């Protein structure tokens, strides 16, 4: 999996709306976790669930307020290589 590809998608999504006030590597840890989860994610739903869990756990659901459906769309983009 191309880290640049995943980074571009996550940074474009900017799920916590931080990038206008934060360094460009703000989501570096989450991106690494997503790339690592790709080995276990066999479907779009599995990857979407992993993305949702990663951001929920790292930022809390009071900060990460995106809907699961958005994670599905992000997962589809990531898997479109």
TrEMBL record:
<dbReference type="Pfam" id="PF08958">
    <property type="entry name" value="DUF1871"/>
</dbReference>
<dbReference type="InterPro" id="IPR015053">
    <property type="entry name" value="DUF1871"/>
</dbReference>
<protein>
    <recommendedName>
        <fullName>DUF1871 domain-containing protein</fullName>
    </recommendedName>
</protein>
<dbReference type="InterPro" id="IPR023162">
    <property type="entry name" value="Apc36109-like_dom_sf"/>
</dbReference>
